[in-house]
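Lecture 7 notes: from sequence to structure.

We start with a single chain of 339 residues. Read the sequence below before looking at the structure.
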Amino acid sequence: MWIKSIIQGRLEFGNEKSYSLVHKMYIYRTENYYKNDILFKEDEIFFEDGYYMDLKRFVGQVTQKSFKNTMNLLGYCAQFAVSGCIDGWLTDTGTVLAHSHVEPSSDKAVVQYYLKGKNLVKSAGEHEKAIAALTKAIAKYDRHAQAYERRAKVNFILKKYHDALRDYNKSLGIDDTNPAAYYGRAKVHVINEDFESAIFDLDMTTKKSIALQSIYWKARRLKSDCHIRLKQYKEAAFDLKLLFNRNFEKDDPNYNWISYIAFQYGKVLLELDENEEAIKVFDASLNEVSKMDNIPENEKYFYRGIAKKKAGKNGSIKDIKMAKELGFENADKLTSLLV
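Now the structure, written as tokens:
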């Protein structure tokens, strides 16, 4: 049975000795362990000039056995690496059937410092320790793009935006395929109100990730916000329509933004004079409020009332009055426009 597979990623081995060893073992295991049932030939993915393995992005129809063999072999290779990671998916019409993630987990000091710092990033109150561990990983291997990216994230959390930007730039200078680094740098640009630069980085985030990853949709959501700030409503509508029509699983962080996305999309549709569609979208925003939606309910009623008026539909006055009752400040002033 043939199934769609997507595999992408990169591993760095740090020196000629490790690179040569893993290169030889890749060939040996391909021939002797897996009987050549591997998706990549060694000359397609190994690069001696920098002692690294780079899969770019593979998309193709494969058998489950070939996929499993390939990911097992890549996982073996990862234990010789000092940095990087590789992800592989089996999919069927957008549904993930299997996902495999491999990264170095050996007892090498650089690997252990990175893994410690990476885990501490997620722990409240441990951010300084995270920075210390990641800095040690970088000291051991100064081309550790992932360590720079994780340290940048901690600096962002600590509101050290200059340091975060420096580390994101360093990470992308080493490895320009990491979507997390583009996304993180975009958030710094947003803080600095450099929305054009943020849009560029968010566009790169979507190009370097795939729609099966949460970060792809997080980038589209933030990019739509940037377009709105620049009054680029057509561009914002493109991203928001994709987001609005996406069925996010409950364990996907984007699920918590569904009603916020609907409200933003409704406002953009108003700007584009697509009023009937805006009503439907505002309905969705009011029906079920998601976790990260902090838009006041009165504001949602108000804008739905505006959409109904512009579309010539009944219920506009009722919505505006509801907005007023719920404390919307401009309701009195703007109600007269609907009479």
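Strands lie at 2-12, 46-47, 52-63, 83-92, 95-102. Keep this in mind for problem set 3.
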